Fold each of these.
Amino acid sequence: MSMMRGCDVVELEPGKWYCFVAVEEYDEDFAEFSTYGPAADADAAYRKMTDVECNPGGCCEYDHADLTPEQKARYERMLRQEPPRRGGNLFGRGW
């Protein structure tokens, strides 16, 4: 079953991919989110997320070369200021 949650797979630097996924259904603004990565490619970042999260209902993928300066700053800020994840397991990952 998939959920309608924001999910972006982003390459912030060449070869450093992250998956940002919203906690709440219908949250496309990432009010609360979890981050997975870094990973070597987009598929690996997405797999890190799907190891512990249910299907968010689709993801957008952004290569570092295609990010605007504003997008890059937003994702870097999200990476530095990640809010606490809900739930968790022995590895400290969110559900």
Note: Residues 87-95 have pLDDT under 50 and may be disordered.
Amino acid sequence: MFLVARDEAKLSAIAENLHVLTGQRPDFKGIDFSSTDQIAAVIQQTRKQAGGLDMIWLRTGRYLISAFAKAIPKRRWKRCG
């Protein structure tokens, strides 16, 4: 699991809570979501570290979804919920 959000301090707290609950500490990174370059870089970094990428879960508005689509345009995007 790799967590990404704007606020790195909040990510750190969430990662620590997940560590307590699951025994595993997820990696995390704070990024500027208006930058498609940063989005693409974090996706590539995650693919390298994990040996692939099965799923990206987004909890966001339409703007961010379009930013992810621009960062990795060859992927198929499916909206759930």
Note: The helical segments are 8-22, 36-50, 62-71.
Amino acid sequence: MDSSDLLMLLAAAVGFVGFCLMTAAFIMVARRGGWRQAMEGDPDGRWPLPKRLMVTGAALCTIFGLLASIANVLPWRDSSQRSLLSAALGAVLAAALIGITALIQRWRGR
């Protein structure tokens, strides 16, 4: 097993774990009676478990997407300059979305 196989397995494992966490979060939302009831915070201000699972799973799926865009991680990706650029643009887009979400939450006063 060489390093490219190890990177491919790591990327697949990260994506699978992220998918499983998000699936578990959706199941918990359904069992708690809907989105609003499941996403209500605890009295001490902590996030509920479905929300934490959803954020963690989404972060892992984002990492999987970034790993998949890097050259030679997946067998069908060639090593070109374009793949590095797409990984960098994906990271910038993810950071921008996180920043915009934080600004909106602060603007709403939450």
Note: The first helix runs from residue 3 to 31.
Amino acid sequence: MLVLVVAVVVAACGPVRPTVAEWENDWDAIVALIPDESSLGTDPEALCEATLVSLRDQKETLFPAPDDLIAGSVRQWLEVAEGMFFECPPSDGFSDSYDQLEILEAEIEAGVNSIDG
């Protein structure tokens, strides 16, 4: 009976959240996957495909986030990044997507700073 109670308590706790420092290593690695807009050139399909595959392979390392405060913004960032490299080039061009990523990165950074500091 005691084993059952312990198992239920452990399961209820959910996944262990990483520290901000641990999570930031994964975040920095994913952000580094995004190529500079200028490197996309006039025929970006191969680079888009490679970036999309890398994003999808590594995105699960970002969850759980260290705090729910940033989790939503991280999901939005991933949606924008995956969308722009899936649609390649996006119907509204890459500039708008890069602008959205920059805004979301600033939100995430502010959230990380408030958690960490």
Note: Helices lie at 2-13, 20-31, 45-58, 68-87, 94-116.
